[in-house]
Specification:
363 residues, alpha+beta, 4-stranded mixed sheet, 16 strands, 39% helix, 32% strand, flat
């Protein structure tokens, strides 16, 4: 393979990316071979700190080929490309799509519920079904874990906006389903809905990050324990040395007082060093949304009566035609999705953990 030809192709792709960005922001473009001339709106030229009339070209183009406007070469690590990439990624892309199905399951929900759910001291009885539409948000977030080192990556969430359940597996199943994207502005989400999404991300991200950051945490813990032990050993040796120095003959009273004062300060100094060490190896995690897709889809609402002894509680469950599974239920105590559930003495829906610890809703 010709490596130079490969590099030229990459540079052309970068120019096309930059040109698409400028056009989206209102620039007028004209192409002359490999060179793209652009007339930028004033606010865009100010934001990029360039002239209103500029030319873009791959890094392989001779600058002398463009004499009309200031020419900016677009290649990796070029200042203008870095500014464009930063602006392009400052606001996560937000799309909306509507799904359509030729067939949606209408029966067999009793078996599906029995397969997926585990009920404690209660039995489910289906009383009816109804087709409706519901909304999911498929959210991709970037996480950054910072300590003495740092680790970053991506994680995906699929939330039902109407119930708050975590509908795992939707992202993998979505490509094969007939859909229509909405390209016009559709208003986005309300402040309350955005607050709810933040709550759901904060609720579920620790469990997801436990797996992704397992090795990173172990590495930081090992280094913390190593440095902690070294610190203890160092100050123990220092104190021992200073104590032994007091036993020397001919040492003055003033020097003895100074050494004793320094020995008395060792515990506080050690505690301060240990606190610094803990701060150094503590892991701080930030989560930033990078892309969102709202999915509007038909679904089946399954009405269920839970029978516990002589008492009954009416609930509903959601059949998700994308995953072809029932969505999990939501615990009324901790708010997490669950497939193992039961009822407290006051008939609140709880996961098994909250049943063991006591219903928070009652408390």
């Amino acid at each position: 393979m010709n490596s130079d030809a490969f590099a030229i192709g990459k540079d052309l792709d970068l120019v096309r990316f930059a040109a698409r960005f400028l056009k989206e922001k209102g620039a007028i473009l004209e192409t002359r071979g490999e060179i793209t001339d652009a007339f930028l709106p004033q606010d865009l030229s100010c934001a990029l700190n360039v002239e209103e009339y500029i030319s873009l070209a791959p890094g392989t183009v001779n600058v002398s080929e463009s004499k009309e406007y200031t020419l900016y070469t677009i290649q990796f690590q070029s200042p203008l490309l870095d500014k464009i990439a930063s602006m392009a990624g400052s606001k996560p892309p937000f799309l909306k799509t509507a799904l359509s199905f030729h067939y949606i399951k209408t029966q067999g929900f009793a078996n599906l519920i029995q397969e997926q759910f585990e009920f404690f001291k209660s039995k489910p009885k289906i009383t009816g079904t109804g087709e409706m539409k519901t909304r999911y948000i498929l959210l991709t977030c970037k996480f950054l874990a910072q300590s003495d080192e740092q680790k970053e990556g991506l994680m995906d969430f699929s939330f039902n906006m109407d119930t708050g359940t975590l509908a795992s597996g939707m992202l993998k199943m979505l490509p094969g389903i007939e859909k229509e994207y909405q390209v016009k502005d559709f208003g986005g989400y309300t402040k309350e809905e955005i607050r709810r999404i933040h709550e759901l991300v904060n609720l579920y991200s620790p469990d997801i990050l436990d797996g992704d950051l397992s090795e990173f945490r172990q590495s930081m813990n090992r280094r913390f324990k190593r440095d902690y032990s070294s610190l203890d050993a160092y100050y123990m040796a220092l104190e021992k040395e200073m104590q032994e120095s007091l036993l020397r003959t001919g040492i003055s009273d003033r020097l003895i007082q100074e050494r004793e004062a320094k020995i008395a300060m060792i515990p506080d100094e050690l505690a301060a060093k240990k606190k610094d060490l803990l701060n150094k190896y503590s892991i701080r995690i930030s989560i930033t949304p990078v892309a969102a897709l709202e999915v509007v889809t038909p679904c089946v609402k399954v009405f269920v009566t839970l029978v516990s002894g002589h008492r009954k509680k009416n609930i509903f469950m959601m059949y998700n035609p994308v995953t072809k599974q029932m969505d999990p239920m939501v615990c009324q105590s901790c708010g997490k999705s669950m497939f193992s559930l039961g009822l407290c003495k006051n008939m609140h829906l709880n996961c098994t953990t909250c049943l063991d610890h006591g219903c928070a809703f009652c408390q």
